[in-house]
Amino acid sequence: MAIGFQSYLLYVVDSLELYQGSLEVERIFTKWLEEEADSNYGAYIPFIGTIRAEDEIEALSFDIYEPVLQKWFSDWEEKAAQRGAKVKMAHAIGDVPVHTSSYISAVFSPKRRVALELIDEFVEDFKANAPIWKYDVKEGKRIYAADRSTPMNGSGLLSK
Q1: Does residue 155 belong to any structural domain of this protein?
Q2: Which of 43, 75, 86, 157 is positioned for an S-S bond with 108, CB 3.0–4.6 A?
Q3: How many domains does the chain have?
Q4: Which domain holds residue 94?
Q5: How far apart are the C-alpha atoms of 60 and 53, rounded to whole Å?
Q6: Whole-prediction pTM value?
Q7: Following DSSP, what letter does each residue of 12-60 receive, concatenated?
Q8: What sign results for the dihedral spanned by CA atoms 30, 34, 36, 40?
Q9: Could you read off the pLDDT of 79-113 as tens digits, one per residue?
């Protein structure tokens, strides 16, 4: 966690957590490891998304449509369970300054190959299909990042 920033847990259902502001990576990972300590998984593969300093942005800002995200994530929980694995995810809502984290996911699995494959599939599908809208923050203003956003089927103006 960057000094001066604190996140607040807003929403948690099963293994999906949404926070206001930057994610406290170490705290979230430690919690997940403690939750799964007795689960006998042989592989734990995390992924951390960090805001890069580019195009003179101060931060990125995120809006999330929680009901659709929960459905998307529940489908992934089922896919992982069919392979004997578990997925976990945390994402930020609102402004996330550069050099801090907005997204964390992890796969726990009895076997490394399953975990490696699932984390890749999960992160790629997240980028393509999760109902999360991204904005650049420049000079304190939110600007929709249309050039770096993925259109979603059925999402009205934002659809493909």
Answers
A1: no
A2: 86
A3: 1
A4: 8-149
A5: 10
A6: 0.86
A7: EETTEEEEESSB-HHHHHHHHHHHTTTS--SEEEEEEEE----TT-SEE
A8: positive
A9: 999 999 999 999 999 999 999 999 999 999 999 99
